[in-house]
Here is the input.
Amino acid sequence: MTLILASKSASRRAMLDAAGVAYEAIPADVDERAIEAELGNSVPAHVALALAEAKAIAVANTNPGHLVLGSDSLVSVGGKRFDKPVSRADAARHLREFSGKPMELHSGAALARDGKVLWSGGDLARLHVRDLSDGFIESYLDAEWPQIAGCVGCFRIEARGVQLFQAIEGDQFTVLGMPLIKVLGALRDLGVMQA
Ligand SMILES: Nc1nc2c(ncn2[C@H]2C[C@H](O)[C@@H](COP(=O)(O)OP(=O)(O)OP(=O)(O)O)O2)c(=O)[nH]1
Here is the structure.
């Protein structure tokens, strides 16, 4: 049976396409804010994993017998979590808060079938945001809004997002939105992909 990707994310689809993974994409209908509220002050890595598992379980519940992959990414700067920007002004506010600080990008993934999580895993990337002038922020948003509206951290690393950083530590796929290398390992372990 074909793997299902429980996601509307173009970045996640692009990663699986490039890696040669066959899948069908079915967005997960989960209330991420409600799940985050239930988790309270859980550490960001745990929240990303929990959201990835919730997405995988939600789609597995309506697709019996299918293996379902869910994923989630969130950003933490100065101990504060940031979701995707809801407007250009929101993105500008985020970028001003990120300026000059280290950004932690937590990305989690989970595989589920028939209501059971069979695997989950996560990864952390650290992106060091350089000092961002107000003038740079506005010109960056002139070029990148609304394309970054669906991107946690207000950036597309493969586009002008790279201009935000003076250094990046971590796996490129984690930065793009999913710990792909760990996901591929799990798919091989589960016999979905050739070992
Ligand atoms: N193109 C691009 N997208 C990125 C980058 N970094 C993060 N993202 C995207 C991947 C995800 O679509 C999004 C993270 O938000 P979420 O984890 O909430 O996923 P989203 O709601 O987009 O989709 P999903 O919940 O999987 O249906 O940010 C990047 O550097 N480039």
Helices lie at 10-19, 32-39, 44-61, 88-98, 134-144, 172-176, 180-189.
